[in-house]
Specification:
- The structure is a homodimer.
- The longest helix of chain A is centred in the C-terminal third of the chain and has 17 residues.
- Chain A contains eight helices and 16 strands.
- In chain A, helix 1 links the parallel strand 1 and strand 2.
- Chain A is globular, with a radius of gyration of 20 Å.
- The first copy, chain A, is an alpha/beta fold.
- Chains A and B meet through strand 9, helix 4, strand 10, strand 11 and strand 13 of A and strand 9, helix 4, strand 10, strand 11 and strand 13 of B.
Chain lengths: ~350, ~350
């Protein structure tokens, strides 16, 4: 079996560390591994398969001899270094938003639109975490019963803003429990025992960037520009799994909850969690650390005859980020195109 | 000015204590005060206007000579004792769900349907907290631009399940920060750094009781059985303010966000919080302890030409419970019917 020279750009971040862990856990065919980060993290040592790997500074020369690079170092670093990586002959799987809406860059969830990989020109974009978790629950239904409109409200974990934001949630919570005022630094507002609208810029139409990503990326991934989406994105004091309340209106008659449940249960990467007697449905602490997106509370919408309601939770760092990226690479290998 | 003999049933609970505090803060015309609770809390001493009041055991005889009783001791105690209070000539303002859907019991938010008070037969029901907070933002628009359908997702605080649930959120959070597993006792699932679907029974249609309350109470309060409502109710690790993401579809053309904002800004009990530059919108920590329901993120729904989106936060114990109850009593006095 062929093995690959792999780089991780942003290796010391919350997603970067999950890339590293997953490459080992999934026995990814790694011939050599290069860990890259900003000069601030240069020299850090991270273990991979029992060996110490020293983090190097990310430069335009970092990718020579690399077959594959996972980027998770923010949009500006992706814009700066991904083209250089591509020129070096490296296939880039980019977790940032830099290239997601570029018409020449495929935006891929491997369970949903793997064939889009065929058209890549060196960069493949990993969708936004909230979009991935949404579509893992919506696309399996959409393929069978076309969806007309989605109304989604999110309950997003601190991890989406990185490792420092996860630490801030813990630190602030300790401050509040000691009777002190929380001191926001990563987030614009206190996150301990609080919630706030997603901390991305609000545009002239009143939608913030995270909401806009969910709308535009959904259409691109499902190849359906007529699909209507509205989203309200909210940060909640949860560490690393996003949840979403999803209202799905179908173009034609809605499937029964049982039919929807059956289709979702058969979809790879989805797990139904619906124990009515124990009032147990998808929860972030159960989604955290797992590969599956949990789906439950599937019910007919009492307010609309062509709609269903459901609730989902998925690990933001795994299926929402690193796992999906690794799965893209695995799919490229399966297709013989890496 | 006439003063009233007042009782609080459930005086030692989270809502009961807010009733007590608000009666003092708002200088309610109290001639005498009787604090009632279960035998477990009998003998506790609570201050009111600088005097110690001893909690008595709630019995059928507790209401003799009382003009007005605030009930917040749970549905079964309301069903058991409210009729006895009414027989004693006491007007009951009941914070439980026991009588809310009784056709002979008015269900009142004083800013919205005060005229329904005229028809009371001794008991007036205080709506569910999530319903009050929803309708404070929806009704002002509905009066001017009739609403056809509401899709709401809630972010509900621990206080809705009482003082013990608020303590459980704190205690569990301390446990988790010490590296221990959280131990749920009031809630069925861990609440620290987690969230879960509202802990009320799920019916055959897949909706839980809290969601059903939001649907049915909305129609009763707005006198509009054609109004379509769907809700997903979720508990989040927040202490005492509920938030809600609300999608409102109008029967005819939607108002512009500016027109909606202007109407809401002029409605008593509503405060607009919309600072786009600072990314500051309604948050539970800003709603907590305040009387106003905070409304923001008012925007055209990009997915539906006749819909608006908005986000609200309101103190669950105040406008969601005790404050609304006191306002009902104040409105009765204003109308000369107490």
């Amino acid at each position: 079996m062929k093995a690959y020279h792999v780089a991780i750009a942003g290796a010391t971040g919350a997603v970067g560390k999950e890339f590293l862990r997953l490459l080992e856990e999934r026995n990814f065919p790694v011939a050599s591994l290069r860990l890259l980060a900003s000069s601030r993290s240069e020299g850090q040592v991270l273990p991979f398969r029992g060996e110490a790997h020293t983090v190097e500074r990310l430069t335009e020369q970092s990718f020579q001899g690399c077959d594959l690079a996972f980027f998770s170092a923010g949009g500006s670093r992706s814009r700066e270094y991904a083209p250089a990586a591509v020129r070096s002959g490296t296939v880039v799987i980019d977790n940032s938003s830099a290239f997601r809406m570029d018409p020449q860059t495929p935006l891929v969830i491997p369970e949903i639109n793997p064939d889009d990989l065929a058209e890549h020109r060196g960069i493949i974009a990993n969708p936004n975490c909230s979009t991935i978790i949404l579509l893992m629950a919506v696309a399996p239904l959409h393929f069978k019963w076309p969806v007309r409109r989605i109304v989604v409200s999110t309950y997003q974990a601190a991890s989406g803003a990185g490792a420092a934001a996860m630490r801030e949630l813990i630190t602030q919570t300790e401050q509040v429990l000691r009777g002190n005022l929380p001191e926001p630094s990563v987030f614009p507002h206190p996150i301990a025992f609080n919630l706030f609208l997603h901390n991305s810029a609000v545009g002239p139409d009143g939608y913030n960037e995270e909401e806009r990503k969910m709308i535009l990326e959904t259409r691109k991934i499902l190849h359906d520009d007529a699909l209507q989406v509205t989203a309200t994105c909210v940060r909640v004091p949860v560490l690393r799994a996003h949840s979403e309340a999803i209202n799905i209106e179908f173009r034609n008659a809605a499937p029964s909850p049982d039919d929807a449940r059956q289709v979702l249960a058969g979809f790879p990467g989805v797990r139904i969690v619906e124990d009515v007697a124990k009032n147990r449905f998808p929860m972030p602490i159960e989604a955290s650390g797992g590969n599956d997106v949990l789906v439950g509370r599937i019910r007919r919408d009492l307010s609309h005859e062509r709609a269903l309601e459901m609730f989902v939770s998925g690990d933001q760092l795994l299926k929402g980020a690193a796992l999906n990226g690794i799965q893209i690479a695995e799919e490229l290998i399966r297709r013989g195109s890496l």
